[in-house]
Amino acid sequence: MTDHTVRLDHVVLWVTDPVAAARFYQESVGLEPVRVGEFAAGRVSFPSVRVNEETILDLAPYGLAPRMDMLPGSADSAGHPVNHVCLSLSPAGFDALRARLAAHGVPMTDVGHGSFGARGSATGTFYFRDPDGNVIEARHYT
C-alpha cells in the first residue's frame, strides 16, 4: 500500500554560526544534532537538528544564501527568516521545554491559550528566539 500522506520534512533556518545554533537547539531545546561533525569538518554545507523521526531543522549559514538557486529567483529570498516555526509537544514535553529554556536563561513569552494550529486550538503556547533571532513557538494540545 502506498502512503500518500504529506509530511513536513524540513525547514531551513538561517543562522550565523551553525555549530553554535546546533548546540543551542540541543542544550536549550532538547533536539538531537545531525551532521554537526561533518559540517565542522567541511564535508557538508550545513548541520541540522532532529525534531522527530520525520522532520529536521536545517541550520544554514548565511554564506550559503547566494547558492540557493534551485529555482529562478530563489536566491533573492534566501537568507530571509520565516516568521516562526511551531513545535508541538506533549504537555509534559511542553513543561520540560519551558524548564530547560529557563535553566539556560532563554527569554520566553508567558503561556497563552487557545491559539489555532494544525490540530485545532492549543491548550498552551509560548514563544522564544534562538541566538540568531529565529522565532520558535512551542505548544501542546490536550
Your description of this structure?
The protein is an alpha/beta fold. It has two domains: 1-80, Signal recognition particle alu RNA binding heterodimer, srp9/1 (2-Layer Sandwich), CATH 3.30.720; 82-142, 2,3-Dihydroxybiphenyl 1,2-Dioxygenase, domain 1. It has three helices and nine strands. The strands form three sheets. It has a four-stranded mixed beta sheet, covered by helices on one side. GO terms for molecular function: dioxygenase activity. Pfam families: Glyoxalase.
Write a concise synopsis of the structure shown:
The protein is of the alpha/beta class and 142 residues long. The chain contains three helices and nine strands; from the N terminus they run βαβαβββαββββ. The protein folds into two domains: 1-80, Signal recognition particle alu RNA binding heterodimer, srp9/1 (2-Layer Sandwich); 82-142, Roll (2,3-Dihydroxybiphenyl 1,2-Dioxygenase, domain 1), CATH 3.10.180.10.
Q: Topology, pairings included?
A:
Elements lengths: L9 E6 L2 H12 L2 E3 L1 H5 L7 E5 L2 E7 L23 E5 L1 H13 L12 E2 L2 E2 L2 E6 L5 E6 L2
**Can you list the strand order of the major beta sheet?**
1-4-3-2
In whole angstroms, the N-to-C terminal distance is 31 Å
Q: Please indicate the count of domains.
A: 2
Poorly predicted segments: none
Rounded average pLDDT: 89
Number of helices: 3
> Helix content range of the residues, please?
10-25%
